[in-house]
Every structure is written in C-alpha cells, then in structure tokens.
Design goal:
The chain is α+β, with helices and mostly antiparallel strands. The protein contains 10 helices and 9 strands.
Length: about 325
C-alpha cells in the first residue's frame, strides 16, 4: 500500500459513521427546536464543539449547543439560573432524561438514544457588540458570563481547511488521534488546543500531501506550544493561559519527536516506502494501516545475505547503494 493510500484509509477510519451522525442530527434538532420555541427570549440556537466542526473523534458522547437569547433579565442575569431553565426545557422534551449542572453547561443525559452514553451540553449566551461574539454562561470557577466567539473559530477553521485543499480538518483529526494515544493526561494536549494551534500552523495556504500536512503540524506545533495560543473563540485571551511551563516543555518535546520521525519518513519515502510506512505506523498506531512486515523482513533477510545490511543492538539496518539506513522500530515505543 502506498503512503498516500494509507493516509486516505486512515482518514476514513477516523470518520464517525453515518448512522451515528444521523442520530446526532435527530437529537440536536429536536433539542434546539424545543429551546427556540420555549426558552424565553431565545433568538436562535447554534451548535458548538468539535462535532459540527468535523474534527471530532469517535466515540461521539457529547453534542454542544448554545441558546442565544436577547436578554438575561428573565434569570436576573444569573448564569446558573439561565442554564437550569434551558436544561429543563430539553429534559421536558426527552422523557426519562436527567440534568446535571456542570462547570460549563447543563448536561442532559439518559436520552434513550442509539448512541451509547451520549449527552447534550446546553449553554446560554447573548450577543455583545457586532458579529457573533457572545457572553456565555459559566458556573466555575465562579458564576459568570464569559466572552467567547465559537462561531468565529469554526469559520476560521473552515476557511483554513479550504485554503489547504480540504486537508486541514482530516489532519487535525489525525493529530487528535496521535494525541489521544498518550495515556498520561499531563502529556496530552487539550483537544481544543490541538485545533487552535492548527490555525497558527496553517495560517497561509498551500497544497501538500497528507503526510506533509502531518509533518508540518508537528513541526510548527512544537514551537507554538512554547507560548500561549490565541483563538477567535477567546477574543481577549488565550486557550491555554493557565498551562504551566513544565507541561509546555513536555508537550513541545513530544511534538518535536513526532516531527523528527515524520521528517525521516518523508526523507526515505521515495527510496524505501516500506520503511516510511513503518515510521508512520509507529507515530499513529491503529487504525493507521499496518505496514507489510513480511515484505520488510524478507528484504532485511536478503540484505543480510548479500551483505547490504548490518545488525546493531538487535536491530537490522538496510542500506543498499544510494539509500539511507533505516533503523528498525518497535511499533509500540514512543
């Protein structure tokens, strides 16, 4: 399998299946219709989060929505009271559902849905100034209305995706998958930060292969991670303002290692596609298509037989004339 085909298959595997999307549409359209009909002063509703931006990985367990109201006066300008009012309308729409007020939203669970453990996250916001900037309900660290513009972030991401031949969103999902492979949460990038950095790493336009897109993300993100990251969704601040320098350093080094491996894969792809495939599989793991290890082993054996390979520390290296040495790799190692 060619590397380009492997990346195409990888992107397909990361897509949420059609039946799940159809069920998600049914749930959020029903909830939004109830809010628009019954929440006092509701002017419109909009989806938020990675699901409508097409950067969500499976499983789809939450759907975020914002009820945009003309005034918060009906709830005495109290965010939690507004959240409870909006959440109760959705609960009334879905028999047997339950509501929990979380740090950022009214969480509506037990929706009797075919999507396992899915819940709806409902927030309330009101427009300020011009455009789509909102004051959105927040209960933690204190009950307040925070300034945000999630619609602007979604627009900018879609524009950047178009500027890069519609490859940026698939690349962002691939990076999210790479990120999620790390079990230690302190060594994971917050999911929204992955997207915010994508806007910085691809702030121009161009046409690159999927593997070049992945390398560019890792390479640019390793530097971007060293300082706080802006996003249109946070008009007056940073996505990661509270991140400690020690964690930034850990994440930057992890991204740099991935960038180095990705560069090696690009460098050897023309002469050693199987070796490049091994490197990409090492970076992404399943469901990136597995390399043809039998072919690779046969090549190594033949190279050893003819003296075109060496063994060091238990690793076979293949260096035919005109080709770079390709170190063997254990797929599970970081």
């Amino acid at each position: 399998m060619k590397i380009k085909e492997a990346f195409k298959a990888f992107a397909h595997e990361l897509e949420i299946d059609r039946s799940t999307i159809d069920e998600a549409v049914r749930l959020h359209e029903r909830a939004r219709a109830a809010l628009e009909a019954n929440l006092e002063g509701c002017e419109r509703t909009t989806l938020s989060g990675s699901y409508p931006r097409s950067t969500r990985l499976a499983p789809l367990n939450d759907i975020d929505m914002i009820a945009v109201v003309e005034s918060t006066a009906p709830w005495n300008d109290d965010p939690e009271t507004a959240l409870r009012a909006a959440g109760q309308i959705v609960v009334d729409e879905f028999p047997r559902s339950t509501m929990e007020i979380g740090n950022h939203a009214a969480k509506i669970s037990n929706l009797d849905s075919s999507i396992k453990d899915v819940h709806l996250d409902v927030v309330v916001g009101y427009e300020i100034g011009s455009g789509t900037t909102l004051r959105i309900s927040e209960t933690q660290p204190q009950s307040d209305w925070i300034k945000s513009d999630p619609e602007a972030h979604a627009r900018d991401l879609s524009d950047a995706n178009e500027a890069w031949d519609k490859k940026l969103k698939p690349t962002t999902k691939q990076i999210k998958h790479w990120n999620r492979r790390e079990e230690d949460r302190d060594r994971q990038m917050p999911s929204f930060l992955v997207e915010a950095i994508a806007l910085h790493a691809f702030d121009d336009s161009g046409s690159l292969s999927p593997q070049e897109m992945a390398h560019r993300y890792f390479d640019r993100a390793a530097e971007e991670m060293k300082t706080p990251t802006t996003s249109p969704a946070v008009p007056d601040g940073f996505v990661d303002a509270d991140m400690e320098e020690s964690r930034r350093d850990v994440l930057s080094r992890r991204l740099r290692r991935a960038a180095t491996d990705a560069q090696e894969a690009l460098d050897i792809e023309a002469d050693d596609p199987d070796g490049a495939h091994e490197i990409w599989y090492r970076i992404f793991g399943d469901p990136f298509p597995k390399p043809n290890t039998e072919s690779r082993a046969a090549e190594a054996a033949e190279a050893l037989r003819r003296g075109g390979a060496g063994v060091a520390g238990g690793t076979v290296t293949i260096a035919p004339s005109g080709r770079s040495t390709v170190p063997g790799r254990a797929y599970g190692e970081e």
